[in-house]
Amino acid sequence: MEPSFLIQGPAMWTRAVARGERTGGNKKDIQEPMGSERVEMRKRQVCAAQGPAAAAPGPRGVGNRGPNACCFCWCCCCSCSCLTVRNQEEQRLRSASYELRTEDLPICEESPGPSLEEASAWAQSFDKLMLTPAGRNAFREFLRTEFSEENMLFWMACEELKKEANKTTIEEKARIIYEDYVSILSPKEVSLDSRVRETINRSMAEPSPHIFDDAQLQIYTLMHRDSYPRFMNSALYKDLLRSLSEKAVEA
């Protein structure tokens, strides 16, 4: 009687074939699996092949990052905070600061148009020009044509800071003024000497409403000596005087 083999899987099938070869039997003597058994064997072979690959951890990559991986590396050796979150928070703070700047520094101060007498008085002294909102608006318009409007903006911001009494508001406005006009990283940095900068840097820990007084005086002097004479000879000022003169004659 020929021996019968119960084929349960790839391993036993291999062993069965091996025994048949050692005994000199023919492969036909071994009962081959039928259709359903062949399908079952194939399923087991696939499961056996996939099992070790699924259990083994894959390489760390773009799609397989650890829960504590940071933004700069693919490993999970660190648990640092994500820089993206910090950048979003900084952007939110900058947006809030920009809104505060926009509210505090309007494009032009609200004031009625100057009279001929008032505009003529601006030529007498720089102090008279800076004393009235109309004079500051006209001078600021001229500075904009010379790409030095930041000098007037800085001077105005310092004036606004002196009016504050709340400590928190003083600290916030002082920080904004520093970042906008004193910091060497700002595109609107004003020209200050090293002594004044060092004094401001030391005082920024606990700023007062007068923290920028020395810097404000320097910028005021710069506008007086450098920009004011050119404003007096500018077409903008001469056109304004001519327009006011014509209105005075018509009246």
Automatic annotation (TrEMBL):
Domain RGS: start-end pairs: 125-241
Keywords: Signal transduction inhibitor
PROSITE patterns from the UniProt entry: RGS (PS50132)
Any one Gene Ontology BP term: negative regulation of signal transduction
Domain of life, source organism: Eukaryota
SUPFAM superfamilies membership: Regulator of G-protein signaling, RGS (SSF48097)
Name this polypeptide is given: Regulator of G-protein signaling 20 isoform X1
Species of the source: Tursiops truncatus (Atlantic bottle-nosed dolphin)
